[in-house]
Amino acid sequence: MRLQTLEITGFKSFSKKTSLEFQHPVVCIVGPNGSGKSNVVEAFRFVLGEQSMKSMRGKAGLDLIFKGSKHLPKGTKASATIYFNNEDKVFKLSNEGGEEIDLNYDVISISREVYTDGLNKYILNGTEVRLKDINNLLASVNIGSSGHHIISQGEADRVLNANQKDLREIIEDALGLKIYQYKIRETERKLERTNENMKEVSLLRRENAPHLNFLRKQVEKFEKAKEMQMELSLLYRVYLKNESVYLEQEKTTLSSEKNKISQELATINAKIAEVEESGEKENGNIEELKKLEKASSEMRALKGELDRKLGRIEGMIEMEERRRDEMPDSVMVSAEEVATIVLDINNSIDEAISKEDIGEIKSILTNIKNILGRFNKKENSQNSGASSEIENLKNTQKDILVQIEALGKKDDDLSQKIEALKQEINQEMEALRDKEREKFSFKVKQQELSSTLDLISVKENNLKREEEAFLNEVKEGTVLVGAEILSFKNFEVQNIPPRNVQEEERRKIERIKMKLEDAGIAGGGEIMKEYNEVSERDQFLAKEMTDLTESINSLQKLMAELKEKIDKEFKEGVKKINKEFQEFFRIMFDGGDASLSVVVDS
User: Fold this and answer.
1) I need a surface site. Which of 88, 356, 449, 486 has the fewest CB within 10 A?
2) CATH number for position 23
3) Are 201 and 541 in contact (CB under 8 A)?
């Protein structure tokens, strides 16, 4: 006897906890109508997992909960617990993987609770489990939720009047084959879910395939671009290092040449300035010579005028002396008149000495002549004072001689200066001709150096453009290859190649850059990441398909094995039942024959 105890709490008419003990193999529950006999039977069905509310005379789980009475409040849940003897460890339970769960208990307790909201809980030895687990557990000891285990009112008629299908189910339940039916139904549900999953996975793969193909092509392009990127990186490393060394060397060379040429040009400019300064000094001497020669010429002209004036004075003296000798003994001329005439003549002479223009000097001499003419007329009219006039003329003669002598000395001094200056100028002119030749050679050298400096400036401008192009190349390379391009700074080269070789390397780099731009390497990391994700997803789905296919094959095989096992054990069970059925039939009907036969559907 496995059944030990049934505890009922809040179930239908049992408001309080009620415990029923089953100590004997045969038990009969008796009592008047309305005492709760059927409620006890329904409690058995309830705790054993019955799902039909109709078989428990209700419409919902709420109908199973105590409704309350005059003295007792209504319940919030209904529960039933059944205890089975498991000292022989006959109860078995396995997980989804088919592994046995340890049920090393002497007593197995199964509880079921229903709440007012219809929620049901199943508890196995204090642990909440699923209804499926309860069914599998009970099936392992040929206990089910169907009513044929409880022979209640009308149950015999139900068995006798059952059709072939129902009768087979009753027999299978009695033979403990219900667990196989559970497993078959569970396998069918799994198979159905697996087929649905396969359809979903297949649909997902079909939907995923175009995008995956697109990403695969993009990744192929990206991988090719990565190869070109690697090649470009290697080319860049050598090219940029060679270029940087070349630019630095060129900058140093041009700077050295520029400094050298600038120093030479400064020296040449200084020498040219020195020569030009000497020339300016020589031009000053020539100007001085011109001034001296002009002064000498003017002095000689003045001296000539004085000589002519002296001649006229001497002629006047002779004339006056002859006249005096021819005239009566005396001609009266007042002293004031003589003084006035002498003063006028002296003033005129002084004025002539101060003049440089010959025309002005002639005009003054003409004026003197007129004065003397007026005096002569007066002398003709007045013979007196002739001697005095002669004396005055002689005094004038003396003054003119003094002036002529002074002019002669000055002219001699000027002549000496002019001669000395001419000799100096001749020497300087000779030196100037040598310096002019030297200056010409300096000018030629200056032009050569200036042209060289201009050429260096052109080279510097070209070098500056090359440096800008180099920096732009580094920026472009950083975009195309990455920051590792800057590692060229630590790269060492043995010899700098010729420029034509470097230009060829440059053309190679440009060709690869164009290919990279066409390949569209930008965003490749994101594409690769997305491709890996989509590819992993597709591989996962493919594996799912394989697993689902294997699962379907496994489930179909399991179903076939379960059906075969049911059929085999059912036939063997029917044989055992027939043996017992024959005995019971003879006892009940005092002889006769009776048997059950298996009908195979055609």
Assistant:
1) 88
2) 3.40.50.300
3) yes
Residue 410 scores a pLDDT above 80: yes
How far is residue 208's CA from residue 196's CA, in Å, rounded to a whole number? 18
82 close to 48: Cβ distance less than 8 angstroms: yes
Q: Which residues contact 589 (CB under 8 A, 6 or more apart)?
A: none
Token pair for 355: 């003049």
Task: Dump pLDDT digits (tens) for 85-140.
Answer: 998 888 888 877 667 888 888 999 999 999 988 889 999 998 999 888 888 888 77
CA 296 to each of CA 291, 353, 403, 404: distance values in angstroms, whole numbers, following the listed order: 9, 14, 15, 14
**Phi, psi angle pair for 85, to nearest 5°:** -75, 130
| In contact, 52 and 144? CB cutoff 8 Å | no
- Tell me what the mean pLDDT of segment 467-493 comes to: 79
Mean pLDDT across the chain = 79
Share of the chain above pLDDT 70, in %: 89
Q: Is 442 within the bounds of a domain?
A: no
Strand 127-129 and strand 18-21: pairing? Answer: unpaired
CA–CA distances in Å: residue 506 to residues 227, 234, 240, 321, 478: 18, 13, 10, 119, 16
- Report the alpha-carbon distance of residue 572 to residue 569 in Å, rounded: 5
Q: Which domain holds residue 113?
A: 3-157
User: Do the beta carbons of residue 441 and residue 253 sit within 8 Å?
Assistant: no
Closest by CA to 178, choosing from 130, 151, 141, 129, is 141
Confidence of residue 148 (pLDDT cuts 50, 70, 90): very low
- In terms of Cα–Cα distance, which of 541, 579, 523 is closest to 201? 541
- Domain annotation covers residue 40: yes
Residue 84, pLDDT score: 92
Taking Cα atoms as reference points, which of 260, 167, 321, 305 lies closest to residue 452? 260
Q: Give pLDDT, residue 538.
A: 80
Pairing of strands 18-21, 77-85: unpaired
Quote the CA–CA distance of 415 and 299 in Å, as a whole number.
11
pLDDT tens per residue, range 308-328: 888 888 888 888 788 777 765
Query: Does 122 fall in a domain?
Result: yes
Whether 357 is in a domain gets the answer no
Q: Is 543 exposed, middle or buried (0-12, 13-18, 19+ CB in 10 A)?
A: exposed
What pTM was estimated for this model as a whole?
A: 0.40
Query: In which band, very low, low, confident or very high, does the pLDDT at 281 lie, cut at 50, 70 and 90?
Result: low
Look up residue 390 and give its two tokens.
Answer: 């002669």
**pLDDT value at position 147?**
43
Cα distances (Å, whole numbers) of residue 161 to 276, 295, 445: 149, 175, 139
Nearest C-alpha neighbor of 46 from the set 2, 108, 111, 1: 111
Distance, in Å, from the CA atom of 194 to the CA atom of 552, rounded to the nearest integer, reads: 7
| Closest of 279, 289, 287, 292 to residue 423, by C-alpha | 289
At which residue do the structure tokens 């339970």 appear? 93
* DSSP output for 234-267: HHHHHHHHHHHHHHHHHHHHHHHHHHHHHHHHHH
Domain count, the chain: 1
91: left (phi over 0), alpha (psi -120 to 50) or beta: beta
Strand order across the beta sheet in which 3-9 lies: 18-21, 3-9, 77-85, 107-115, 120-124, 127-129
